[in-house]
């Protein structure tokens, strides 16, 4: 299997997992289990946002966020960020009753990542894109890491959804 085909399959996994979530009551979607600042709504938003921002940096293109998701989700200035380093107060500002919108945004970003993978040729996967780390980060490493981050956050939402009470 070539890297593009393998990554294309991987890229869709977070969206598939999010689509399998039960419909969450808005109180659960915006809950802060154990007093943690990251609600399920924040986790779904961040899963998509971090992928979107980093993918746009890789492609040199525009963020999927600009394709109507910013307006639909209406998260204000906090929504334009990506969640890394958010203070508890910033994270708690991400509130949404639109689970379908949050998962739709994630699906759109996952599709964009899969399309991008199809444009990459031999040698581009191993290209170093960030030498500020040790070891330096390759394009493949960055792509896998953004999908992995999204999948972990969707898993956290699934855990909260499966809890009998908050």
UniProtKB/TrEMBL annotation:
DinB-like domain location is 14-157
Cite the Pfam families for this sequence: DinB_2
| Record-linked SUPFAM superfamilies | DinB/YfiT-like putative metalloenzymes
Q: Which Gene3D superfamilies match?
A: dinb family like domain
Protein name (Swiss-Prot/TrEMBL): DUF664 domain-containing protein
Which organism's genome codes for this protein? Corynebacterium pygosceleis
């Amino acid at each position: 299997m070539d890297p593009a085909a393998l990554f294309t399959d991987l890229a869709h996994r977070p969206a598939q997992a999010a689509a399998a979530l039960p419909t969450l009551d808005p109180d659960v979607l915006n809950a802060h289990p154990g007093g943690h600042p990251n609600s399920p709504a924040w986790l779904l938003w961040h899963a998509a946002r971090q992928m979107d921002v980093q993918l746009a940096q890789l492609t040199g293109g525009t963020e999927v966020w600009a394709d109507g998701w910013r307006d639909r989700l209406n998260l204000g200035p906090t929504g334009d960020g990506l969640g890394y380093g958010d203070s508890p107060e910033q994270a708690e500002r991400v509130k949404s009753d639109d689970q379908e919108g949050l998962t739709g945004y994630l699906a759109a970003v996952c599709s964009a990542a899969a399309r991008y993978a199809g444009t990459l040729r031999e040698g581009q996967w191993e290209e170093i894109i960030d030498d500020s780390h040790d070891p330096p980060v390759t394009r493949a490493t960055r792509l896998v890491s953004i999908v992995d981050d999204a999948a972990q956050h969707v898993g956290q939402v699934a855990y909260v959804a499966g809890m009998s009470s908050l």
